[in-house]
């Protein structure tokens, strides 16, 4: 950490060589639109132009090009099983980094990842990244920060039709039809998207289909938004490549593209709809949001002839009203946000041995989670150069769950059922931040805050020490975060350095070594580090971007009890590194206008080695190796649209971003290989 602080000091006080536009950059992840450059936080906005330049094929790939963000990708096939991690939470990054779509929560109350492939890059206007903040405004699951994906507005004047198509390695075909019309106070847009690919791995065919429609009316001080969408996915699951040196097993070296589970598959169907009403009363603004979303998931796991089939349904209804009240007290101006969040989640899981038997499942687990929260946040301009942020949140969650077992169901084998359970939990969050412009070029900020996370339904249902199912209500997780940063902005350069520290208590995670415990509250841990990023527009044709993150994620104390069935007992984790967190991550990117209508762009991403999932004691002796990937994109504009050629993983790096240690065999582990070099050709046609 001392080395990282020294690096930060040298970077901040040396001659800055990075830049960005001086215009205000508004973000909406703050519940109401705010200038990101006046927030006491480390924020990044990936604009539409940045998305066009990138060779990234999915949103997680685009996010990993940013400072301090990593992804865990199982198969690399259109982000079908991918999670995003901010600031070193590791395998639980997906439960601690809140993902929003147009300001609406799409991180669910189960352990499935966000359906990234339901949000194609071609339909994204910008992405807002708010590091370390969000717990006051959004509550549960925002400990590491908030990522808000903003789709294209339907209010672009006139009529337009766009056709996007891509063909790539591994029989990949992707296409989107997008249309929009806007006149006066009304706008509408709609899209149809299809994707299919065999994938790098055997038994990894992926087929995706999405539909969206957005309408917007603006009448003087009133805005009405109506949104609807559906998505469908059929995915084959290849499983892992197993390695165990003591018996000479190495499926990764022998056949990295092979499938351990050639019969496994999953499918997923989702629907969502929303209505948003906005009303201005002079300087005040009122927003009322009503949203509904469903997700139906089915998965088959053969397990060597002992199959499990799950049919899980999840539904959520939400009402999230909020009010912004600008006012003044003496010389201080305020922008006060008051809000309430109400969510009603319903979960229904049917578990059987085969798809045809789900009408009579062996176990049926039903759970409900009802959340009510109240919050406020006040942005106070103490002077023209100094802004203070103060906020707090109180949240209550009520659980109700039951499990029924049918001994007459096909495939029944001494299954038990969990007793009915109910519980109410409460948590609070707060945030205090200060930003001050030291000059027209320099600015600094400091902030502190408390965040929390509740247990989700997949973490709730487990077996006890006697292998009998039960609902285990874990203590809420909470984190105390302190951070500070300095920014410099010049006419053609900019640089930012941020230091952060998060102390996490009662972290909710799997304890793989304690048979019958399942998910548990882990011992206290700390994430601390430094984030450096900057931009430099060298001239009118060339721009550069770079970033570096040092993340020190360790357990502060404690032991994992283990069991006679696992690889050990009473294993100390004090001072051990949190798995799946690379200590070092570096990014570099360039965009070069080779000619008036031709641009070449590229990105380099480096991650250092990291401990595998389930290796909290750090005793396996093998890590996920470090890796470096390079992506290039060449695009040319025509009067009718664009053509682009992208090469991902240019040098064919052999790598994987996720691996897991066996809980029962000392030297066995499993890896999930990702593709080598891939090539894709994209065509875009536009009719205005």
Can you describe what's shown?
- The chain has 688 residues and is mainly beta.
- The protein has a single domain, classed as Maltoporin, Chain A, CATH 2.40.170.
- It is built from 7 helices and 42 strands.
- The strands form 8 sheets. The chain has a 23-stranded antiparallel β-sheet that branches.
- Strand 17 and strand 18 (284-301) form a beta hairpin.
- It is globular and about 65 Å long.
- Mean pLDDT is 92; it is low at 1-22.
List keywords for this structure.
56% strand, 7 helices, globular, Maltoporin, Chain A, 23-stranded antiparallel beta sheet, five-stranded mixed beta sheet, 688 residues
Determine the mean pLDDT. 92
Structural class: mainly beta
Largest sheet: 23 strands, antiparallel
CATH topology: Maltoporin, Chain A
Q: Provide the low-confidence segments as ranges.
A: 1-22
Helix tally? 7
Q: Which percent range fits the helix content?
A: under 10%
Strand percentage, roughly? over 45%
- CATH level 1 name: Mainly Beta
End-to-end gap: 54 Å
Looking at the overall shape, the CATH architecture is Beta Barrel
Number of domains: 1
Query: What is the CATH superfamily?
Result: TonB-dependent receptor, beta-barrel domain
Secondary structure tally: strands: 42
The whole-angstrom Rg is 25 Å
In short:
The chain has 688 residues and is mainly beta.
Annotate the secondary structure layout:
Layout: H1 2-13, E1 26-27, E2 34-35, E3 42-46, H2 48-53, H3 59-64, E4 69-73, E5 82-86, H4 93-96, E6 97-101, E7 104-105, E8 124-131, H5 135-138, E9 145-151, E10 158-168, E11 172-183, E12 186-197, E13 206-219, E14 222-236, E15 241-244, E16 249-250, H6 251-254, E17 265-281, E18 284-301, E19 308-319, E20 322-329, E21 332-352, E22 363-381, E23 386-405, E24 421-437, E25 442-453, H7 457-460, E26 461-463, E27 469-471, E28 477-489, E29 493-505, E30 508-510, E31 519-521, E32 525-537, E33 542-555, E34 559-562, E35 569-572, E36 584-595, E37 598-607, E38 627-638, E39 641-648, E40 659-661, E41 669-671, E42 678-687
Parallel strand pairs: 6-9
Antiparallel strand pairs: 1-2, 3-8, 4-5, 6-7, 8-9, 10-11, 10-42, 11-12, 12-13, 13-14, 14-17, 15-16, 15-41, 17-18, 18-19, 18-20, 19-21, 20-21, 21-22, 22-23, 23-24, 24-25, 25-28, 26-27, 28-29, 29-32, 30-31, 32-33, 33-36, 34-35, 36-37, 37-38, 38-39, 39-42, 40-41
């Amino acid at each position: 950490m001392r080395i990282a602080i020294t690096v930060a000091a040298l970077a901040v006080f040396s001659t800055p060589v990075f830049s960005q536009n001086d215009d205000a950059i508004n973000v909406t992840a703050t519940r109401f639109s705010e200038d990101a450059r006046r927030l006491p936080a480390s924020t990044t906005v990936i604009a539409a132009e940045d998305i066009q330049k990138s060779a990234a094929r999915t949103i997680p790939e685009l996010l990993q090009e940013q400072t301090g963000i990593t992804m865990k990708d199982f198969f690399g096939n259109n982000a079908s099983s991918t999670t995003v991690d901010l600031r070193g939470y590791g395998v639980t990054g997906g439960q601690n980094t809140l993902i929003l779509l147009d300001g609406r929560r799409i991180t669910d109350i189960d352990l499935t990842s966000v359906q990234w492939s339901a949000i194609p890059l071609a339909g994204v206007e910008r992405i807002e990244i708010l590091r370390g903040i969000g717990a006051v405004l959004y509550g549960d699951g925002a400990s590491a920060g908030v990522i808000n994906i903003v789709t294209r507005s339907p209010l672009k004047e006139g009529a337009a039709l766009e056709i996007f198509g891509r063909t790539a390695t591994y029989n990949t075909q992707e296409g989107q039809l997008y249309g929009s019309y806007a006149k006066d106070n009304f706008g509408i847009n709609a899209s149809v998207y299809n994707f299919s690919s065999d994938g790098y791995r055997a038994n990894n065919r992926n087929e995706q289909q999405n539909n969206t429609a957005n309408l917007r009316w603006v009448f003087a001080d009133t805005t009405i938004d109506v949104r609807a969408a559906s998505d469908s996915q059929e995915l084959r699951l290849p499983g892992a490549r197993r390695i165990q040196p003591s018996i000479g097993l190495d499926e990764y070296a022998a056949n990295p593209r092979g499938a351990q589970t050639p019969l496994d598959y999953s499918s997923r169907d989702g629907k969502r709809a929303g209505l948003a009403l906005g009303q201005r009363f002079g300087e005040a603004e009122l927003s009322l949001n009503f949203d509904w979303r469903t997700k139906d998931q089915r998965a088959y796991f053969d397990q060597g002839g002992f199959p499990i089939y799950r049919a899980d349904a999840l539904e959520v209804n939400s009402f999230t009203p909020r009010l912004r009240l600008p006012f003044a007290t003496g010389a201080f101006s305020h922008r006060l946000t008051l809000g309430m969040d109400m969510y009603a989640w319903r979960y229904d899981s049917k578990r059987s041995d085969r798809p045809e038997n789900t009408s009579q499942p062996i176990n049926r687990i039903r759970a409900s989670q009802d959340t009510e929260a109240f919050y406020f946040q006040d942005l106070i301009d103490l002077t023209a150069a100094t802004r203070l942020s103060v906020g707090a949140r109180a949240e209550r969650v009520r659980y109700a769950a039951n499990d029924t077992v049918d001994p007459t169901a096909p495939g029944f084998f001494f299954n038990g059922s969990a007793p009915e359970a109910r519980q109410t939990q409460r948590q609070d969050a707060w945030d205090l931040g200060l930003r001050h412009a030291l000059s027209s070029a320099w600015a600094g900020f400091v902030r502190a805050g408390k965040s929390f996370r509740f247990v989700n339904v997949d973490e709730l249902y487990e077996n006890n020490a006697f292998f009998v199912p039960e609902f285990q209500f874990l203590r809420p997780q909470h984190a105390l975060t302190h951070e500070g940063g300095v920014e410099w902005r010049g006419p053609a350069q900019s640089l930012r350095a941020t230091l952060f520290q998060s102390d996490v208590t009662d972290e909710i995670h799997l304890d793989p070594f304690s048979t019958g415990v399942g998910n548990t509250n882990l011992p206290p841990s700390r994430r601390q580090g430094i984030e450096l990023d900057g931009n430099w527009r060298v001239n009118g044709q060339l721009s550069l971007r770079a970033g570096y993150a040092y993340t020190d994620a360790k357990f502060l104390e404690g032991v994992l009890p283990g069991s006679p069935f696992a690889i050990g007992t009473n294993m100390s984790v004090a001072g051990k590194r949190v798995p799946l967190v690379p200590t070092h991550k570096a990014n570099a990117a360039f965009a070069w206008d080779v000619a008036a209508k031709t641009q070449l762009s590229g990105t380099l991403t480096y991650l250092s080695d990291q401990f595998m999932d389930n290796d909290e004691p750090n005793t396996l002796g093998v890590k996920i190796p470090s890796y470096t990937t390079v992506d290039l994109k060449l695009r040319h504009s025509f009067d009718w649209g664009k053509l682009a050629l992208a090469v991902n993983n240019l040098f064919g790096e052999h790598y994987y971003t996720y691996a897991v240690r066996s809980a029962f065999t000392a030297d066995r582990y499993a890896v999930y290989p990702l593709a080598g070099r891939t090539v894709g050709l994209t065509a875009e046609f536009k009719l205005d």
